[in-house]
């Protein structure tokens, strides 16, 4: 009932930039936190950045100062601006949203399908 669709991934050289977008659609009463995770082969999925409905943000230490998360509540969309990309940033990036589909229900976390980001040296 809730879908998250990502865009903006691709192949870039080290030092380059990418902007990821993720739009949530479907039965949505409200969205609390939204965020981005990434997973490289053989590694656990890790938090990259998160943002609350009020705009508070949290970043992994490895991306602080390089990545910026933002959101447009009117569009149910979260963005990740990635600058000064490094080969270590290569991973599949997944967006997520904590969604309430009915006002009396609890929030549930939904995930996008993932988008590949590859940074060449």
Description:
The chain is an all-beta fold and 121 residues long. Helices cover 0% and strands 58% of the residues. Strands 2, 4, 5, 6, 9, 10 and 11 form a seven-stranded mixed β-sheet that branches. A four-stranded antiparallel β-sheet has the order 1-3-8-7, with no helix packed on it. A hairpin with a 4-residue loop joins strand 7 and strand 8.
List the helices and strands and how they pair.
Blueprint: E1 2-7, E2 10-13, E3 18-26, E4 30-39, E5 46-51, E6 57-59, E7 67-72, E8 77-82, E9 91-100, E10 108-111, E11 115-120
Parallel strand pairs: 2-11
Antiparallel strand pairs: 1-3, 3-8, 4-5, 4-9, 5-6, 7-8, 9-10, 9-11
Features:
mainly beta, 121 residues
Give the helix proportion (percent range): under 10%
The total beta strand count reads: 11
**C-alpha-based Rg, rounded:** 14 Å
Averaged pLDDT, please? 96
Structural class category: mainly beta
Query: How far is it from the N-terminal to the C-terminal residue, by CA?
Result: 40 Å
Order of helices and strands: EEEEEEEEEEE
Q: Judging from the principal axes of the Cα atoms, what is the shape?
A: elongated
Sheet bearing the most strands, described?
7 strands, mixed
Strand content: over 45%
Low-pLDDT stretches: none
Number of helices, where a helix is a run of at least 4 consecutive DSSP H or I residues: 0
């Amino acid at each position: 009932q809730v879908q998250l669709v990502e865009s903006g991934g691709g192949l870039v050289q080290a030092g380059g930039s990418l902007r990821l977008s993720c739009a949530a659609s479907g039965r949505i009463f409200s969205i609390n936190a939204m965020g981005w995770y990434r997973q490289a082969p053989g590694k656990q999925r890790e938090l990259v950045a998160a943002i609350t409905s009020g705009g508070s943000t949290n970043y992994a230490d490895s991306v602080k100062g390089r990545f910026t998360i933002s959101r447009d509540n009117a569009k149910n969309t979260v963005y990740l601006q990635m600058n000064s990309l490094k080969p270590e940033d290569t991973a599949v990036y997944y967006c997520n949203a904590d969604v309430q589909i009915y006002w009396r229900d609890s929030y549930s976390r939904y995930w996008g399908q993932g988008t590949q980001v590859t940074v060449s040296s």
